[in-house]
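User: Second chain of the day. Same drill as before.
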Amino acid sequence: MKSTPYILVLVIILSSCISKEEHNALKKDLESLRSLNEESIHELKLNTDSLSLELKTVTEEKNAIDNQLSVAAGQIKSVEEQYLGLIETNKVLENNYKGLLSSSSNRNQKLFQQLGEKQKHLEEKEDTLNLRLQSIRMLEEQLAIREARVKELEGIIEKQDSAAQALKQRIKDALYKFNDEQVSVVVKNGKVYVSLSNEILFKSGSTQVDSVGVGAMGLLASVLNSNNDIEVNIEGHTDTDKGVDNWDLSVKRATSIVRILTAAPNSVDPARVTASGRGEFQPIGDNESTEGKAKNRRIEVILTPNLDEIYNFLDGEL
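Assistant: Same format as last time:
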């Protein structure tokens, strides 16, 4: 702003000595200089305002920091005071601790002695406990082995039972034309019991097998010959009538059945077959009634599957 008058004076002086063209050129340059000067003044003002704003912001930040420093200084002073107090408290505690150590040394020695005795007792109990744990582990191992053996035995028994059930079904299928009163087939204790009524086997008091009974034995023999590992026990049973010797009658009837089974064309291996008589002493019905006596007069064919696998297993256990 202050340089403008000097420029004007210079222009006036020069204008008196120069031509019109030169004057116009100088005038144009003067206007350019003025415009440039105004722009510089405007830019300077903008810079001044920006710096003023930054100065204000910095001043506010400085004041905030000063306040924070003041608060921190107060906190530091408070901490220092607390620290000094803790030092004094620690000194008091150390003095009390030293006093306690000095006054209770005998008591401490006694406590240490008791602690040592308890530790020794505890170690003895721990040794005893370890021995018991070892014994328990051994028992658990033995139990696990036994459980495995039991499961194995159960598997063998289940297999034997399944075989018995299958044999029962084959016999029932073979003797399907006889009703339940004439022939019954059951499984008990792993054995198959085939009970045949005297109605289809013998006339009263006779030991000769009727033709119907011979046919039934042929059907039974076909099943037995397809299961060669089965032991066959033929039991004769009677009622309590005393017209004949019931012991003798039951044995002879069982023997008659054995002969039919082992003879051609049935040809069951005689080494597998046993005949026995039970007389009147294993009734399944009431000997006081006609129906009960009819049930008691019977032949029972007891089929025992090969139990070698179970026996071998049990021998291994022993």
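Residues 275 and 289 are 28 Å apart (CA to CA).

User: Great, on to the next one.
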